[in-house]
């Protein structure tokens, strides 16, 4: 839908009332579009640069009144007579971006904004001719957010595909994680596909809303009919002669082998629950389960519960368990840094729904505001400063400032509990591990009388509970493991044999690497989404990364098919130099420099999961394929590469 074709459906009074709730910088950018008046971007009222953990300063009343009056007048006129188009050129667009970010950004943000925000018509490439896509079939492994996106892009390209999904439905993370309190912690207005905005119920919606969104996506694009549910890909083997992948799957019909010309692995990084390596886990006589496999048949009402872990999932379910259980012990290895966000559990108000749905360009600029404040703008707090002589507690003056703000938040939320303040204030720099978001919910739960936070090491699990290294025994009715996922075992447990028969995991040797996070030498026509070094610590949403990666994969397939190639294989040189750059850059970020133990480092301390740059850098590096980075195999004879399996519908 074009922004100017939005219909304003409200009385004068309703318009005036809703506009009082608008995010002012987003509204000012809307007014630039609708009035053509660029003088509204007055530097004296530009937002202050990022104010994490604090409340952004308000605007003087007379400015709010002036903008409000202009907005009311403009929207009423637009409602009655339609909106005029005032084109925005690149210089003005950069001014608008800078205005909302509150800092001077470089023009590398312009193409990103033009593509991401619905403010200009997109330059889309047409589908490939049927003559070049005939007999070419892509196998997509996984029907979560990334796999669905891959399916949509294959449809746009005109390429036939099958999605293999081990679960009974789409949604991946949001299908599997059903624990109480499960929700997104990237704001939903950036945690959604750029091409499919949604009227989200909450700023950070819960698991049901997220699952619903991905189910709707599957339905809208007819992806269920292209998916083989309850079918797990177990093994992939590249056939050099035919330039195809032989794929062993296990599903309702048992084990089968199928063939595809290319594989897009969209298996997620957080898909295989990880249990801690503790002696005696199986000995516990009561119910126990991992958060990603929550056993809803177990009532926790009035029970004694042991919670192992304080990571992102445990952080969300602990307050819910505390509400029900009679006695809760939380076993913590490393406390998380938590940024306060007052709207974390809040519903979006009617006025904000109205603004997002009816005011032209408001949703786009609100999305950019979220992109900046929840991601891109945070990076400066995570970057190391060489002249800062610390790295243990903080990595730069900005990071130290952030530490002080976050520490103040902990002290406020835990007021009256010096014991908890001491235990829950992290020693490591903020942004060295994924920062969590809350509005005090978690700390309020931990302060309750029936809750104890234990930071002694767990020695073993036993029949009645567990024993810590101090010799203290804790007895429980149930144990819940919030111990995360086998994230560093990317693509696990699939066995993937490349050109010379080498298994990918052996080649990686606990150290996953890829070129641009997507391709690996010796594994032709094999593309990863959410692969090595494409995860986030502070910046943004994984959907952004998957969209960039899929853009690149589409470019690869388009190039290959247009030129009659049957295979493309990443050359070792670009792969090596890219990974050298990744390692250098990781050391310049809090999460690479700090010695804190984190799930995104391998046994040697190398950061294998996270992207160390800005989002806009990632966006740019994925825009175009450089054919020099690949070795191409020319078609020798007609290759029949249909997967040969009819997708099952469920
Ligand atoms: C509790 C939780 C909260 C999160 N919150 C955020 C957040 O706030 N912001 C954010 O950006 N990210 C968040 N994430 C990360 C989240 O995983 C990604 O945002 C996103 O869901 C990844 O989508 P995906 O499709 O790449 O992977 P997944 O959602 O993990 O989907 C992978 C799919 O592949 C299937 N699969 C795997 N292996 C096979 C196989 N061999 N054969 C067949 N099928 C297979 C799985 O069944 C699954 O359906 C969160 C993750 C978790 C667990």
Please sum up the structure shown.
This protein folds into three domains: 3-123 and 352-373, no CATH class; 130-272 and 487-634, FAD/NAD(P)-binding domain (3-Layer(bba) Sandwich); 288-344 and 390-481, FAD/NAD(P)-binding domain.
Structure, described:
The C terminus is likely disordered. 33% of the residues lie in helices and 14% in strands. Strand 1, helix 7 and strand 2 form a beta-alpha-beta unit. The chain has three domains: 143 residues, no CATH class; 291 residues, FAD/NAD(P)-binding domain (3-Layer(bba) Sandwich), CATH 3.50.50; 149 residues, FAD/NAD(P)-binding domain (3-Layer(bba) Sandwich). By secondary structure, it is α/β, with parallel strands linked by helices. The chain has 21 helices and 21 strands. The chain is globular. The chain has a five-stranded parallel sheet with strand order 3-2-1-7-19, with helices on one face. It has a five-stranded parallel sheet with strand order 8-17-9-10-13, covered by helices on one side. Flavin-adenine dinucleotide binds next to helix 7, strand 4 and helix 18.
